[in-house]
Fold this protein.
Amino acid sequence: MAKGKEKNVARANYPKLYDHDPLADVDPELRAKISEMETYIMKNCLWQFNSRGWDRRKQNAGILGKTAQLLVGEVVDNPTPLDKCHWVDAVLLARNFKERCLWLADLGADEIQSIIDKLHARIDWLTIDGSLNEELTVQNY
């Protein structure tokens, strides 16, 4: 490498989805519900700590997508070993959400899906796009 030219290794090799907190404009009641779920994930789920941003994005989508399917009673298809891995975490997450977030029982499938979509955006923001952890963007990973 030529002197004076440094290789930029801290550049994400995936696009940012959010440039600000996706819950910034959500009403306080809905935000409180999502916060309850977010707090559970942040305190109990190790899957959020993958070392690469793209890996976190893939894992967040896999686990939260399957969690939504389980919460609304859909059949979950697991054709690959990675899908099965996400499904195991989703089963535990859905079980804990049902135990802790009793208000879920009063919601329809569309409302549950909407809340999980917002939770997914928030978790992506916290763990990837809004994270100050520069290690997430190291291209050698």
